[in-house]
Each structure stands twice: as structure tokens, then as C-alpha cells.
Automatic annotation (TrEMBL):
Domain RecA family profile: 65-214
Motif, RadA KNRFG motif: chain positions: 251-255
UniProt record similarity statement: Belongs to the RecA family. RadA subfamily.
Keyword Metal-binding: yes
Region of interest (Lon-protease-like), ranges: 350-452
InterPro entries: AAA+_ATPase (IPR003593), DNA_repair_RadA (IPR004504), P-loop_NTPase (IPR027417), RecA_ATP-bd (IPR020588), Ribosomal_Su5_D2-typ_SF (IPR020568), Ribsml_uS5_D2-typ_fold_subgr (IPR014721), Rubredoxin_2 (IPR041166)
GO biological process, one term: recombinational repair
Gene encoding the protein: radA
Segment forming the signal sequence: none
HAMAP family tied to this protein: RadA_bact
Protein name per its UniProtKB record: DNA repair protein RadA
Biological source species: Frigidibacter mobilis
Membrane-crossing residue ranges in chain numbering: none
Length: 452
């Protein structure tokens, strides 16, 4: 039989190409395409077995699906959408060393203590090392089955024999299927292993959590290849220098996406942070120019964060725009609107923007807080320390109302803020003990706050 030609796969997005290229057409990544053995055709049994279909009406009469299981770590349960859905497949991605194994060992132990039969299979550490970690985390007595295995066939055999309620595979990049001729960690292997595990999970009613490393240089096949196969995709993020870690749902078939869980890395593992707003604002000292408090919403929960700006004369021909924790495209738009609509240029000035505490803010509702921080830094005027801000800025400079205004304001009030700036058409009756000033556009805001 003629040897099937190799395929070329992008390690960043998993797209398959006929020939090598320097840049992936699908995702635009450079130098990410590698040659791999062809996908095997084995397994497809055409016509040997007729599939069975079930009329939709029949399903309604079947008993209700088993309920979700909560592990008791509220931050983890919330991100899952209110607990673990039986027979679901979950991917937890994140940079190496960010704390994925620690988080999942803690979560698995909590599920086990709630009576779920749990297996933790590590392809990266020996069983003794996992046990040592569990001991350090004070989880040594949790009834979790440990395995150190990388061969997919052995893992599936174990799962079939043990029939756990939850199995954690740490990590998908270390697994290898002997039917695929490629190194562990390659796109073909990751795709094949994830496919087998997810199919098995659905058929046998096992909930499965796959751990995936993301590396920026694209050396290891990104979990992006796996994202569409699973029900839920969670990313574990955080800055190395910070203690805070955020578990974020980016896709969830069984709950709201964009939900976050906040943790703090301590000597004894990850501790839950029940009140993230207080944490993110805790480093705020005296009222400083360049600081604005944004009343945001993450998933179903209001979270207050501090946007910090520094504006300084530049010696460069094209001044610096350094943005951490915010979308730099949005920041450029806001700078352009400030210049075009309010006549406040930032030419010849370096701009640095940052969200305190290593948090990432993606909401357009943060626009007005970003503008406020930038103006406050440029004019060297501190904003009132008890002021919270939210609102989206349109290209015309008008302020657009955003969702969940009441939740934002209530959270701000709870944290001791007594005044807020909101877009004009915000539908709120008013919050007791809080002065809410509604403004129609950015020019009005600049005039009122900075007297310009
Ligand atoms: P780990 O869970 O191994 O990361 P990942 O699985 O994402 O690669 O976490 C590794 C880091 O966490 C390591 O730098 C040490 C730190 N850590 C603590 O600070 N406290 C702890 O209790 C544990 C277990 C780890
Ligand atoms: Mg790990």
C-alpha cells in the first residue's frame, strides 16, 4: 500500500494544510506549521453497524439527567456553572507553572470527599510526587485514586475497569495513542488522545477534566485544538509575580461564559478569594493622579478594579503605548476619541496603562474608566477616591449605557464608594446613599471632572 502523504498542521490553531508555509492561513501565526504523519483512517467502520436514532419526543419521557455535583470550593463550582455536570468534558488550560495541577488536585480531593469516585492521572509526575503534593496541601486523606500513566490505551482500560465519576488527565500533552505515529505533544497526538478520552467520557458517563499547557512560542500543541471537542473551556491565568490566579470560563455549554473564580497562591495551595473587589482594590493608597476605579461585571458577579495610567513626555519619535490587562486596540481607540472629539492630544507623550492586581478586563464598559485614568494622569489631577466609573465610549464620543448597572453600583456602594459616573441612558432609579451622575458624552465628562 502506498504510504499516505504527510500532513502539515498548525500547532497554534490545529488547521491542516497540504504543504508547509511560513504563516498559517487560518490563524495568522508565523512559523507554527509542522509536518506530521497522516491522520489514521482506522476506526471508521462504514456500514458495518447501522447507527440508531432516537425520536426527540422519546427523550422527553426519559428521567431527568443526574444533578450537578458541587465540590464545595465555591469559586471552582461557580466557574463550572454551578457544579460539575456528569459525563461532561472540561479543558483547563494555562501557562506551565501557573498552578493547574495544584488547583485540580484540590478540586478532585473536594469532589472525592463529596462522595464522587475520582481518579487523578498524571503523565507529568510520578504517583509518589503527586502524593507528596497532596500531603503538603493537607489532602492526603482524600479518597482519590492516583495513577501515573501516559499510554492512552492503558488509561482507557483503567477508566473502563474503575468507572469513576470524575477523571483528571494531567496533562493532555503527555498522553500518547499508539495508533498515531507522532510524538506526544504534537497536534495529531493531542487531537487523537482528546478525541478518545472525550468520546469515552460521553459514552460511559465519566466526567473528564483535561489539563492543557499553553505556551506562547507554540512549541507544544495548544489546547486550542481541543477546545471545540469539549463542553467547557476554562483558562487559569495570572501574572507570575502576583499571588492572584483567575480561573475564567471562556466556553461553557452548561453555564455562563466569562464567569471567573479568584484564587490566591499560598504556601498551602490555592486559597479562594470570596471578595475579589476588596482584593483588587486593596493596594490602593491615597488618591493619586492616574487612578480610576472601574465597576465591572465578570460573568454573573460584579468586580471592581483599579485602572492605573501614567502619561509622561516621550523622547521617542513614536511614543510608547504599553498596556497590561486591557485590550490595546480599545485603548488606541479611546486615545483617538479623546483627541478628535475632546481636543485632548496625547502626541509626544508615552502612555502606560495597567489593571492593578494582575486582572484582565475585556468589557467595553471599562472605556470610561480608562479615559478617566488617562485624563487624570495627563492633567495630574486625582479623581475623588470614592468614585466608581463605568460606561462604553462610542467613536462619536457619546457614552453608551451598559448592562447590569444596578449590580455594579451596589457592589461599589458595598465597598464604600459614595459617587459614580454612568452613561446618560442607564436605567437605574438611584441607589440609596450613592450619588450617581449620568453623562451623555465624553466632553461633558471632561468638563465636569477636569473643568476643561
Ligand atoms: P503547578 O500546580 O505545578 O503548576 P502547573 O500544573 O500549572 O504547571 O504549580 C506550580 C507552582 O505553584 C510552583 O511555582 C510552586 C507553586 N506552589 C505554591 O506556591 N504553593 C503550593 O502549595 C503548591 C503546591 C505550589
Ligand atoms: Mg502540572
Amino acid at each position: 500500500m502506498a504510504k499516505a502523504p504527510s500532513v502539515f498542521t498548525c500547532t497554534a490553531c490545529g488547521a491542516v494544510h497540504k504543504k508547509w508555509a511560513g504563516r498559517c492561513d487560518a490563524c495568522g501565526a508565523w512559523n507554527s506549521i509542522t509536518e506530521e504523519a497522516p491522520l489514521s483512517a482506522g476506526g471508521a467502520k462504514a456500514l458495518s453497524q447501522r447507527g440508531r436514532t432516537i425520536p426527540l419526543t422519546d427523550l422527553a419521557t426519559e428521567e431527568a439527567p443526574p444533578p450537578r455535583v458541587r465540590c464545595g470550593m465555591d469559586e471552582f463550582d461557580r466557574v463550572l456553572g454551578g457544579g460539575l455536570v456528569p459525563a461532561s468534558a472540561i479543558l483547563v488550560g494555562g501557562d506551565p507553572g501557573i498552578g493547574k495541577s495544584t488547583l485540580l488536585l484540590q478540586a478532585t480531593a473536594s469532589f472525592a470527599r463529596k462522595g464522587v469516585k475520582c481518579l487523578y492521572i498524571s503523565g507529568e509526575e510520578a504517583a509518589a510526587q503527586v502524593r507528596m503534593r497532596a500531603q503538603r496541601l493537607g489532602l492526603a486523606d482524600a479518597p482519590v485514586g492516583l495513577g501515573a500513566e501516559t499510554n492512552l490505551r492503558d488509561i482507557l482500560t483503567t477508566l473502563d475497569a474503575e468507572r469513576p465519576g470524575l477523571a483528571v488527565i494531567d496533562s493532555i500533552q503527555t498522553m500518547w495513542a499508539d495508533t498515531v505515529e507522532a510524538a506526544p505533544g504534537s497536534v495529531s497526538q493531542v487531537r487523537a488522545a482528546a478525541h478518545e478520552l472525550v468520546t469515552f467520557a460521553k459514552r460511559r458517563g465519566v466526567a473528564i477534566i483535561l489539563v492543557g499547557h499553553v505556551t506562547k512560542d507554540g512549541q507544544i500543541a495548544g489546547p486550542r485544538v481541543v477546545e471545540h471537542m469539549v463542553d467547557t473551556v476554562l483558562y487559569f491565568e495570572g501574572e507570575r509575580g502576583h499571588q492572584f490566579r483567575i480561573l475564567r470560563a471562556v466556553k461553557n455549554r452548561f453555564g455562563p461564559a466569562d464567569e471567573i473564580g479568584v484564587f490566591e497562591m499560598t504556601g498551602g495551595g490555592l486559597a479562594q478569594v470570596a471578595n475579589p473587589s476588596a482584593l483588587f482594590l486593596s493596594e490602593r493608597g491615597q488618591a493619586q493622579p492616574g487612578s480610576a476605579v472601574f465597576a465591572g461585571i465578570e460573568g454573573t458577579r460584579p468586580v471592581l478594579t483599579e485602572v492605573q495610567a501614567l502619561v509622561a513626555p516621550s523622547t521617542l519619535a513614536s511614543p510608547r503605548r504599553t498596556v497590561v490587562g486591557l485590550d490595546s486596540g480599545r485603548v488606541s481607540t479611546i486615545l483617538a476619541v479623546l483627541e478628535a472629539r475632546c481636543g485632548i492630544p496625547f502626541t509626544g507623550l508615552d502612555v502606560f496603562l495597567n489593571v492593578a492586581g494582575g486582572m484582565r478586563v475585556n468589557e467595553p464598559a471599562a472605556d470610561l474608566a480608562i479615559a478617566a485614568a488617562l485624563l487624570s494622569a495627563r492633567e495630574d489631577v486625582a479623581l475623588p477616591p470614592d468614585m466608581a466609573i463605568f460606561g462604553e465610549i462610542s467613536l462619536s464620543g457619546a457614552l453608551r449605557p451598559v448592562g447590569q448597572a444596578e449590580n455594579r453600583l451596589k457592589e461599589a456602594q458595598k465597598l464604600g464608594f459614595s459617587q459614580a459616573i454612568a452613561p446618560e441612558r442607564t436605567k437605574i432609579e438611584g441607589i440609596e446613599g450613592m450619588q450617581v451622575r449620568k453623562m451623555s458624552d465624553l466632553t461633558a465628562f471632561v468638563g465636569e471632572i477636569f473643568g476643561a
